[in-house]
Design goal:
This protein is α+β, with helices and mostly antiparallel strands. The protein contains 14 helices and 20 strands. Strand 9 and strand 10 form a beta hairpin.
Length: 473
């Protein structure tokens, strides 16, 4: 992404409690300032800019990024999520460091604790230390950190925990957990006092809704422009966060499909929807939702003319709807969940995600995303991003009233959903259709055979890359 506008806005803002400029790269000076930011409200540090905002650039910045990242992750303790990136600005190389406010204060560098004021970074005094300790105690009572009684190790997806360990160790090569899931979860604050936390269940439990009903995600595809009982797809995703993300993204990819472009002898594909904007919107809903309420929900609704993503939990104090279209600070409601999503490269710490969404929508010819608050919900709307007008009127005359003799009403309902989906997104194969309607592959193969035998659909193309199409009847 082009960060020119973001950096320009930061320079105009000037240094403050959440923003530091350094003209040179000195590891210890950088570490002290990063430590101070983490102990306070989090923020950003730009290397290659003088304190008065003059762009001086950094020589050899490209070779220093990995070294600096490793140094900070090793020497700022306890370990915290720190993002180090090389950015280009007006032909100069800069290094951008971004951090969240830490949940395990106080943080130290070389055994010393630092605090960030509006003007500078300095060693923490006794008043600062008392404040950090109180904040740490408060974070331990946060919903994420509360113990979840009843969840044992065999109730976790250990494979997913091991995946996280591998990704974490790649970012922090000086740390090793010997594939010990409990040691890793304890280090990340997800296992405390002999119990797994609520956040651990949201992230890794095999069946989190058994303990936390609010872990589920609902996705509904409606046949027209309004919510009604006439829908093409309605499913509750009740697995852990990582599995839900995978399943939801898989379905949306299948639903909207891809476009193929041929240039010379080269064929390329891209999604038919603004994938960056949609995924960013869904991730924001999942990471920033208010999980503390049992009635908490994330509902993804896809209509014929728009997509709506709704989650419980309005914007944090200090952040407003108007801020979302410009550079803004990243304020976390669920830092433990956010940190693991950062480890998996599902989110960034830069306050640029909503701006990427705006840019991606424009690339696809859509209007800017619309955010609004409704009661205790935050709602995101993508106008023009739907499955097409008139879907609920029938694939062709009589299609939505297909009744095949010899099968029950439930199967006939699934057959009609398949026909409608094939007409909406022609060319899908059996595997994609199975994902789309939430049925097993063998079951969908059986349904497709019934539809072919009754001359309602046909398969076109080669076995490996062909798909199903509705016959004109």
């Amino acid at each position: 992404m082009d960060y020119t506008s973001l950096i320009s806005n930061l320079i105009k803002t000037g240094e403050g409690k959440r923003l530091v400029f350094l003209s040179q790269l000195r590891m210890d000076t950088v570490a002290k300032n990063v430590c101070g930011l983490i102990n306070e409200e989090g923020g950003d540090l730009l290397l290659g800019i003088s304190s008065d905002g003059e762009i001086v650039g950094l020589k050899g910045a490209t070779a220093k990024v990995d070294e600096l990242s490793g140094y900070l992750n090793k020497h700022v303790q306890p370990n915290a999520p720190i993002s180090v990136s090389l950015v280009k600005y007006k032909k100069h190389d800069l290094i951008w460091i971004s951090v969240w406010e830490g949940a395990q204060k106080p943080y130290s560098f070389q055994g010393k604790i630092y605090a960030r004021t509006q003007e500078d970074t300095s060693k923490a005094n006794n008043e600062d230390l008392s404040s950090f300790i109180l904040q740490r105690k408060a974070s331990e009572f946060h919903w994420e950190r509360q113990s979840l009684l009843g969840l044992e190790e065999d109730g976790l997806s250990i494979r997913q925990v091991e995946d996280s360990i591998l990704l974490f160790e790649r970012k922090n090569p000086h740390l090793r957990f010997s594939n010990d899931p409990i040691e890793f979860l304890q280090y990340m604050g997800l296992y405390q006092n002999g119990h797994f936390t609520n956040a651990a269940a949201i992230l890794y439990a095999k069946n989190p809704v058994r303990y936390l009903p609010q872990a589920k995600v609902r996705l509904t595809v409606y046949a027209d422009e309004k919510s009604s009982d006439s829908f093409l797809y309605d499913r509750l995703y009740e697995s852990n966060l990582f599995q839900n993300i995978q399943d939801v993204f898989d379905y949306i990819d299948v639903l909207f499909g891809r476009s193929s472009y041929i240039s010379g002898l080269k064929r390329t594909e891209r999604q038919k929807y603004p994938i960056v904007a949609v995924r960013e919107g869904i991730m924001n809903a999942l990471v920033h939702r208010d999980y503390s309420k049992v009635s908490s929900t994330v509902h993804i609704s896809i209509y014929s003319n728009r997509m709506v993503i709704s989650n419980t939990g309005i914007l944090p104090e200090g952040l407003h709807i108007a801020d979302l279209k410009r550079e803004h600070t990243s304020i976390l409601r669920n830092p433990d969940i956010a940190r693991m999503c950062f480890v998996h490269d599902l989110i960034e710490m830069l306050g640029s995600g909503t701006q990427r969404m705006v840019k991606d929508c424009k690339t696809y010819g859509l209007t800017d995303p619309i955010w609004k608050e409704d009661g205790d919900h935050l709602i995101l709307e993508f106008l023009g991003l739907g499955i097409g007008e008139g879907v609920g009127e029938g694939v062709s005359e009589g299609v939505n009233d297909v009744v095949i003799e010899g099968v029950n009403d439930g199967v006939n309902d699934s057959l009609n959903r398949l026909i409608t989906l094939i007409n909406t997104t022609p060319g899908m194969n059996a595997k994609q259709l199975a994902i789309a309607i939430g049925k097993g592959h063998s079951t969908v193969e059986r349904y497709l055979k019934l539809l072919r035998e009754n001359m309602l659909i046909e398969f076109r193309g080669a076995p490996k890359d062909g798909g199903y199409f509705v016959l004109d009847k």
